[in-house]
Design brief:
Blueprint: H1 2-68, H2 94-119, H3 126-142, H4 150-171, H5 176-201
Length: 220
Amino acid sequence: MQLFLDCSTECHIINETWDLNFSLQNHSKSFATHVMRETRGKEGIMTGKIQKIILFALVISAVLNACTAAPPTTIAPVPTNIPTITMTPNPCAPENIHAEVQKVHKFMREFDDASSLAASRPREQLSDAIAELQKIRRDAEDQQTPPCLRDLQTYQISHMNSVINTLIAFMGGSDQQAVDQGIALARQQHDMYTMELARLLGITVVPATVVPVVTATSTP
């Protein structure tokens, strides 16, 4: 009986001890599981924070790179020199010939006036008149003319030379025949100039009519 009681008591103690150990083991497992969950939760939170920090750093770096990036190189366009085509008017065209002729003819008009004045002066006062005529001739020679006016300018200069040479000969005391020949040549050259001038301007020149001189004759 005593043995049975002792066995019962011992078994009861053993059972209680086993239950206690089992409870402790379960509590330890629960605690460990809770700790692991807490640890994993904290690790997840830390991992999320780290990922957010890395993402934020990448965004900031991209913005800074965009701000500090060198501006794109722009190639300036090379200007193309397009030559400007200007049409030079033809001085010999019908609409321009009159203005070109006047550039030459103004010297002839000036020379004619000066030579008429020189013809009215005495021999000893021809020096200044001849100097003026020579000046007009030099200006006429320097005048640039188009090809269509070359003949007109040639007749003009030839006439001026003949007048000046005749006046110099007269002032130097040449005989009357030489002076008359110089005057005739100068007149002929002036007529050639006038004919060329009329042709260029399209003017018809009517030759002067020679009126015959009627002389009285005695009747038989």
